Amino acid sequence: MRKVAVNTAIQATSHNPWFISEWEILLRMVLALVLGGLIGFEREQSNHAAGLRTNALVCLGSCLLMLLSEHGFAEFVNEPNVRLDPARLAAQVITGIGFLGAGTILFTGKSITGLTTAASLWVVSAIGLAVGAGFLFAAASATIMVLLILWFLNKLEKKYIAGKKEHHLSIVADERTTLFQAISALMLEREITIRKITLQEYGDVELEEPRVMLKLNVSYPNSGNIIVLLDEIKRLEGVHAVSTE
């Protein structure tokens, strides 16, 4: 009779949505750590601001908050005048991750960097929440998809899209019309589109031959090599320095 009562209690507890065993808590936290670490490892390999430790911590912390939100207040379920919302605490994770992701976004005045890192942190927090809520298949599937996006689409972007982005060239040269014509001819030969040209005085005006700073915003073709272009410009007579951003 006693054995039947114990079995009945165990079954009732196992079907209780507010109950979770310590082993299952540990399993979910370890899984969140692993999934976040996988994405963080890819970010670390690419030398991004949010790497292995950051992503692993975000995923683990999100999982812990989800577990706390769902099961941390189970003892108050049967209390009168108490209504528990298992999503309320976890929902605040998204707001917190917004502040963390904003710290990885940089505006240099010419371009914005860190958007992908911020987005990956946001997805990693969602994966942690999914693990904490018990959606293990969804969390694992999302991790695989994120890794494919960060690795495969990155390769695809570099091959077919990155080359079409603008490069900023700065050229210090003597003020010669023939030199400007030579630079234009070189750009035309390499099928480089000049988007913007800025010309300003450079250095000491008392030099025998005045120098200028020529700034070019150019779109480079996919098949081109920017280092080769810089070397060819540097070899032109009258060019003293050339750099790119």
UniProtKB/TrEMBL annotation:
Lipid bilayer topology: Multi-pass membrane protein
Transmembrane portions of the chain: 89-109, 121-153
Keywords: Cell membrane, Membrane, Transmembrane, Transmembrane helix
Predominant location category: membrane
Annotated MgtC/SapB/SrpB/YhiD N-terminal domain residues: 29-158
Protein family (similarity comment): Belongs to the MgtC/SapB family.
Name of the protein in its database record: Magnesium transporter MgtC
Organism: Paenibacillus beijingensis
